[in-house]
Write a structure and sequence with these properties.
Elements: H1 2-42, H2 47-75
Helix pairs in contact: 1-2
């Protein structure tokens, strides 16, 4: 029975950590493209895209830190 549990646990962890990578990528892309769109509308190239990239990166790192804290709580 424990052999059936190992692949299930492995896949669950793989999807969890793979999902955090996708979330990081999506945060950065949304921030950068949102900034790019605002740059196009307001004619402020490339400043708002850079700001959007920075905020998107910060949101992605926040997700990683949240996952680390959840793992710490589960181990305790």
């Amino acid at each position: 029975m424990s052999q059936n549990r190992k692949p299930e646990k492995f896949m669950k962890e793989w999807f969890r950590y793979g999902g955090i990578g996708v979330e990081m990528l999506a945060s950065v892309l949304i921030g950068a493209f949102g900034g790019y769109g605002l740059d196009y509308l307001l004619d402020t190239r490339p400043w708002l895209m850079i700001v959007g990239f920075i905020f998107g990166s910060a949101a992605g790192f926040r997700s990683i830190f949240r996952l680390i804290n959840q793992d710490k709580e589960n181990k305790d």
